[in-house]
CoA transferase subunit A
Amino acid sequence: MNKVFPSAAAALDGVVKSGQLLAVGGFGLCGIPEALIDALRDSGANDLTVISNNAGVDGFGLGKLLETRQIKRMISSYVGENKEFERQYLAGELELEFTPQGTLAEKLRAGGAGIPAFFTRTGVGTIVAEGKETREFDGHLYVMERALNPDVALVKAYKADKSGNLVFRRTARNFNPACAMAGKLTVVEVEHLVETGDIDPDDIHLPGIYVHRIVVNAHPEKRIEKRTITEKVTSKAGA
């Protein structure tokens, strides 16, 4: 089975459609599948529900899909860097399901592991628990959270072999593996593609059984979310 596609548009052809539930990897601006998001925008698919830890920033990442009004609902943990997101939400134009970050990660992990639901103490007594089943264990109240099984997962990895075995780099390993595992169909954008067998088995972070399509984006933009520089202080002689 050939998993490698010549472009992001080709990799999404026949895969994405309006009304789907999608998971998109990334943490802040790290590990964002930039080319796949652009191709999703260009596909015209709309009325989308998107699972993502962040919602991009204005003009980048999922922010592009917010600008084109293709997202109707977000399931997210942190959305504080996107003014268009804020505008749409406050205007009642965008639905939002706020989810604690650890709970969001576990909902994706559970989906990939075939676990339909789990109990957690996080969110008990808050709006997070409204309308959800609760149960007491060992004297503590827990809320039941359902797993997430997106129709399509869009993922960014550093390297893949042609069988789809993946290697992630640093923070990009945060939500991308969980999204890949949870997706019913997973499309991965990579910077480097090698032959099957070229990656040492001990170096593989996610096996290719979870990956259905691969596209190479050798030169992603890789924006920095917040750049902080310490000014170098030089001392004067004799001071």
Notes: The longest strand covers residues 152-161. The domain at 4-116+152-216 is CATH 3.40.1080.10 (Glutaconate Coenzyme A-transferase). The two ends are 71 Å apart (CA to CA). The chain has a mean pLDDT of 93.
